[in-house]
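Escalated from tier 1: succinic acid holo job.
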Amino acid sequence: MTPLYEPQAFIDGRWIDAADGRRFAINDPADGSHVADVADCGADDADAAIAAASAALPGWRARTAADRAQLLHRWHALIIDNIDALAELLTREMGKPLAEAAGEIRYGASFIQWFAEEARRSYGETIPSPWPSARIVTTRQPVGVVAAITPWNFPVAMVTRKAAPALAAGCTMVLKPAEDTPLSSLALAELAHRAGIPAGVFNVVPTARAALVGDRLLDSADVRKISFTGSTETGRKLLARAAATVKRASMELGGNAPFIVFDDADLEAAVEGAIASKYRNAGQTCVCANRFLVQHGIHDRFVARLIERTRELKVGPGTAPDTAIGPLINQRAIEKVEALLGASVDAGAQIALGGARHVRGELFFEPTVVTDVTAAMPLWSDEIFGPVASILRFDTEAEAVALANATPFGLAAYFYTADLGRAWRVGEALEFGMVGINEGMLSTEVAPFGGLKQSGYGREGSSHGLNEYLDIKYMLMGGLAPKGDVA
Ligand code: SIN
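Tier 2 regenerated the structure:
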């Protein structure tokens, strides 16, 4: 059978090695085994990809929206047809359980289907003219060549959430996938090619020299937009660099999601929401619950039940059928979890469950519950990105809202209550781009995903997602008065 990817760059519809022949290794985080040696692209390869995307742009943007939509529908169908192979690849390079990997591929594919549909609805507008002899219309046109820089925690979905709207809008793309997980994006490129998406429209440059390739993409005046998902710290640097060529930017950056449980909440629903929100992808998502705020009256019952349910989560390699929690992505990730936990325990936090590396291997961490956390502790202020639930006890609604908002981040927030008035009050008061009310998971292709404050700007998914890749053009058509009349 034709392989789903080659361990190379995909530029201008062809598989090629890095110009200087360098390669880097991808290892399975579950056991350290070698998965592939991939082309380690450098500045010349980034230039070649930008040139290919620029050359493909006029042809791609000139196609009808319906034509682009048809190719995207084919891409979507091929991804679904290959879901098992893609899930296996994703689990090997990233570690998440196979069922979660398949879920991610369905989630990722849903963006392609959604934006194939949205491509046909990229409407302009007419505006009442202040002049009798003139008319005003606006159209929306593709931004141009887009650079996408994507993270390792969703190696498929974070690529399609950017590529699908970009391609639907008529843009072409150069993608730099995360160093830990380039293989899934190469497989996506192969399937895009098989779907008939023309050479140069979707280019992938894997690299372990992120700064070299990233700088090239940001410095090029031919690249008109940067779309980034990753840390706030990196996002700031990219934005500063993109300023020189005044690129458009979408930034999906770090979060520090509060998960508030009020006394009147349905306990079982809150615990199930907490399990889903906290432990999805072993806690490695930017919308994972990072801080639990639990009201005095329900606190002890919530903690007891959360511990019971957390104890049931099976830790193991993603390929084992009953695994709920796979390995963390790399040594840096696990060391960060240990450091945040250690410093918080030194400051008085209590470990109620777990708290150490798991016997399964060096990148596995025990699902952990920590109580007596305070807002002064590192577990509270930093994004944990690991399977650690840190819990603070509060008394009043006002206190919970103030604590939840006291962060520079504003991506996702969650709360549980049975009181309708409180649902509106707290929902409106939380300074976050997304709020789950009595729900612990809110990601879907039909709703706008994105943050406030230092969690970034721009929206992915939904009808808003397409606008990120379209420029508005205002056209004034004058001289419409009959000849001889005064306008
Ligand atoms: C992310 O972690 O950046 C994305 C999570 C999601 O789409 O649910």
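DSSP finds 15 helices and 22 strands in the chain.
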